[in-house]
């Protein structure tokens, strides 16, 4: 019976006296980071040999499992977590368990684990949760930093074309949240547009090349000379004038850049979008139909979101490699601080 409990399994593997000395570090991250974190842990275990692993879905925090008695309402039974599909490319998915404990050796040649890594997914809060524990506090800190850094540098999203989708929270009749809001990062496959395909006036094309495409190809030289590389353009005109087509053309020209396309209700999630763009820089944010959310503050129902956008754009440091293309069908509705900005 006890062998089927996660706390008893850990006690048997590490020893009670050793577990009592364990310190736990915990990091909650957006759910779209789950695959990158899982892959980073696998890479980390290349230098810290895996002793064993336990695939189990348990809701308690790791600190509680290790150091506290089980409460009456908790379930510490080892219950194999389901394999959940995660997008890893356009039309591609990878199935991963939503709860894994890795018991790893810190000292090579040791047949007994000294470190514990846990990755889990909380479907209610929409978070990927990374927890690392050991009696060796320096190892815990270094392991956490290495896995987080590696998950960013080797991210599957880097240099891809992405689309941001947003699902609002769902509340029951009493106002309690049944499902949290969800920001989804999806891979987008777009048909490339070449110079021969593009029909656009020479002024617009020159603006796109100078402020977006050439800026990318010359970024290293510009940075070396201290020239700010925070630039962007606003494309405007009636529907059907080629704004989206021009964006596709720019995407085809930019190798080694993460392209992030945002439209509709996802435009409200300004802070989350900019966190993603900063994480995956060099990146290009393509915000479409921005007049729907970022209209002039005199007529804007979403003035707080407009403030978030202005704060984020102003807050970008000169050396941060995040560019913008904004599109609108109604330039007259646009906030002056955006449409009249030199950068924007």
Helix-strand topology string: HHEHEHEEEEEHEEEEHHEHEHEHEH
- Termini separation: 64 Å
Low-confidence stretches: none
Gyration radius from CA atoms, angstroms: 24 Å
Treating each run of at least 4 consecutive H or I residues as one helix, how many helices?
11
Strand order of the largest sheet: 11-8-13-14-15-12
The class by helix and strand makeup works out as alpha/beta
Kindly state the number of beta strands.
Answer: 15
Largest β-sheet summary: 6 strands, mixed
Please estimate the helix content.
Answer: 25-40%
> How much beta, percentage-wise?
25-35%
- Give average pLDDT, whole number: 86
Task: Based on Cα principal axes, name the global outline.
Answer: elongated
Task: Give an overview in words.
- The protein is an alpha/beta fold and 344 residues long.
- It has helices at residues 6-14, 16-20, 34-44, 62-67, 137-153, 202-217, 219-224, 243-253, 270-279, 303-315, 336-339, and strands at residues 23-30, 50-55, 83-89, 92-97, 99-104, 115-122, 127-134, 161-167, 170-171, 177-179, 182-187, 232-236, 258-262, 283-287, 322-328.
- The protein has a six-stranded mixed sheet, sandwiched between helices. Strands 1-7-6-5-2 form a five-stranded antiparallel sheet.
- Helix 3 (34-44) crosses helix 5 (137-153).
- It starts with 5 loop residues before the first helix and ends in a 5-residue tail after the last helix.
- The model has no long low-confidence stretch (mean pLDDT 86).
């Amino acid at each position: 019976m006890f062998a089927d409990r996660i706390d008893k399994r850990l006690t048997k593997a590490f020893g009670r006296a050793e577990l009592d000395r364990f310190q736990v570090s915990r990091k909650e991250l957006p759910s779209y980071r789950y695959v990158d974190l899982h892959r980073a842990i696998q890479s980390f275990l290349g230098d810290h040999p895996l002793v064993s692993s336990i695939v189990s879905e348990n809701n308690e925090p790791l600190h509680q499992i290790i150091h506290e008695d089980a409460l009456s309402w908790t379930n510490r039974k080892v219950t194999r977590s389901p394999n959940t599909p995660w997008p890893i490319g356009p039309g591609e998915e990878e199935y991963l368990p939503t709860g894994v404990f890795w018991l790893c050796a810190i000292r090579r040649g040791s047949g007994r684990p000294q470190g514990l890594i846990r990755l889990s997914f909380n479907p209610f809060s929409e978070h990927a949760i990374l927890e690392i524990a050991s009696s060796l506090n320096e190892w815990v800190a270094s392991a956490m930093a290495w896995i987080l850094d590696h998950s960013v540098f080797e991210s599957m999203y880097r240099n891809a074309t992405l689309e941001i989708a947003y699902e609002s929270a769902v509340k029951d009749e009493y106002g309690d949240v049944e499902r949290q809001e969800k920001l989804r990062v999806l891979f987008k496959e777009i048909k490339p547009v070449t110079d021969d395909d593009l029909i656009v006036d020479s002024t617009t094309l020159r603006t796109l090349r100078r402020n977006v495409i050439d800026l990318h190809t010359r970024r290293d030289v510009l940075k070396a000379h201290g020239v700010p590389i925070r630039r962007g353009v606003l494309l405007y005109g009636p529907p059907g004038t080629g704004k989206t087509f021009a964006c596709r053309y720019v995407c085809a020209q930019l190798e080694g850049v993460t392209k992030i396309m945002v439209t509709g209700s996802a435009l409200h999630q300004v802070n989350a979008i900019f966190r993603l763009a900063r994480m995956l820089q060099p990146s290009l944010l393509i915000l479409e139909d921005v007049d729907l959310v970022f209209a002039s503050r005199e007529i804007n129902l979403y003035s707080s979101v407009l403030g978030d956008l202005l704060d984020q754009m102003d807050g970008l440091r000169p050396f941060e490699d995040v560019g913008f293309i904004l599109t609108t069908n109604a330039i007259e509705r646009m906030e002056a601080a955006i449409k009249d900005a030199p950068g924007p």
